């Protein structure tokens, strides 16, 4: 049966923790990841795995709470994006180190979007942390990355599920993880702690972006979404359409659909829960694929040694 996997990891904020669960299930079943392409959070998780630092990151992620997330996001006024993110990416560099993409053990692609050229930018060489930061710079929230005369933002703006790089990978199959899947039908109960953290984060961002609560009626405050949530959901509507378009040209062998309502995109304090959901979804998707392909030989033949 096929074992070599080109892995495509989509964008979606904290839902990207589901990528960890998918990777762990692939490894548990003996699949070999031979190439990774990712956008936004997908570029981070893929880069961490490629450097062998994913477990270290996960141990850290399990310990952080919502207040630590706010501190790491380094919110600042007077910038093109209310979140600087310097502290966050300093922490990422502490974990990853000064690593160059071309030195990774497998081909790796981080996808960003150039506001200058209006095109995708593929990072396949250069500093890994810089590539991840450019790929993750959500417009209007995170400050963009300026380099080589270009202004770079989140890869999900143009390509939330970067299938094309996987097309040329040396692999038997492509596994894609889409973080914009259809929502769970059953409404999830929001625990008091989650409500509190959401209120703190939403309120802080809204104030920094100039939204005055005095301008909202009581009905609007109780019923409407925050400005940040509206901005994020607007972008996700666009990304869902883009993902379908990309997959029309590059169909993955296995598609893991992560429901878009498993968490808010900034709920990075819910690592264990989200990673567990990702693993369960991977189990279901891989079980279905394996049941259809049981006993098939690998599509890649090993080269015969020369005599």
What is the 3D shape?
A: globular
The proportion of strand residues reads 15-25%
User: Tell me, what is the CATH class?
Assistant: Alpha Beta
- What percentage of residues falls in helices of 4 or more residues? 40-55%
Q: In CATH terms, what is the fold-level topology?
A: Cytosolic phospholipase A2 catalytic domain
Mean of pLDDT: 82
Low-confidence stretches: 187-197, 207-225, 299-307
Helix count equals 11
Termini gap:
28 Å
Q: Provide the gyration radius in Å.
A: 20 Å
Return the string of H and E elements. Answer: EHEHHHHEEHEEHEHHHEH
- Quick one: how many beta strands? 8
Domain module count: 1
Main beta sheet strand tally, sense and closure: 8 strands, mixed
CATH superfamily: Cytosolic phospholipase A2 catalytic domain
Class based on secondary structure composition and strand pairing: alpha/beta
Keywords: Hydrolase, Lipid degradation, Lipid metabolism
Protein name: PNPLA domain-containing protein
Domain PNPLA: 7-167
Motif (GXSXG): 38-42
């Amino acid at each position: 049966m096929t074992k070599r996997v080109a892995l495509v990891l989509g964008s979606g904020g904290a839902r990207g923790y589901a990528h960890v669960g998918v990777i762990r299930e692939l490894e548990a079943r003996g699949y070999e990841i031979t190439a990774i392409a990712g956008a936004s959070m997908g570029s981070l998780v893929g880069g961490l795995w490629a450097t062998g630092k994913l477990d270290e990151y996960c141990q850290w992620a399990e310990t952080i709470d919502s207040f630590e997330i706010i501190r790491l996001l380094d919110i600042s006024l007077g910038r093109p994006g209310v979140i600087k993110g310097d502290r966050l990416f300093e922490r990422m560099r502490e974990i990853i180190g000064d690593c160059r993409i071309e030195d990774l053990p497998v081909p790796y692609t981080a996808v960003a979007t150039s506001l200058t050229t209006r095109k995708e930018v593929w990072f396949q060489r250069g500093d890994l942390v810089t590539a991840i930061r450019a790929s993750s710079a959500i417009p209007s929230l995170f400050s963009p990355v300026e380099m080589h005369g270009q202004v770079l933002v989140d890869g999900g703006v143009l390509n939330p599920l970067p299938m094309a790089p996987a097309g040329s990978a040396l692999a038997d199959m492509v596994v894609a993880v889409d973080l914009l899947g259809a929502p769970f039908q059953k409404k999830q109960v929001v625990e008091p702690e989650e409500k509190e953290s959401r209120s703190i984060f939403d309120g802080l961002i809204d104030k920094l972006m100039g939204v005055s609560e005095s301008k909202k009626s009581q009905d609007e405050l109780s019923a409407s979404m925050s400005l940040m949530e509206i901005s994020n959901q607007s972008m996700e509507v666009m990304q869902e359409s883009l993902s379908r378009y990309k997959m029309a040209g590059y169909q993955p062998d296995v598609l893991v659909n992560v429901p878009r309502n498993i968490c808010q995109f900034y709920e990075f304090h819910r690592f264990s829960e989200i990673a567990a959901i990702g693993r369960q979804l991977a189990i279901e998707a891989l079980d279905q694929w394996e049941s259809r392909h049981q006993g098939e030989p690998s599509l890649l033949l090993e080269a015969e040694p020369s005599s």
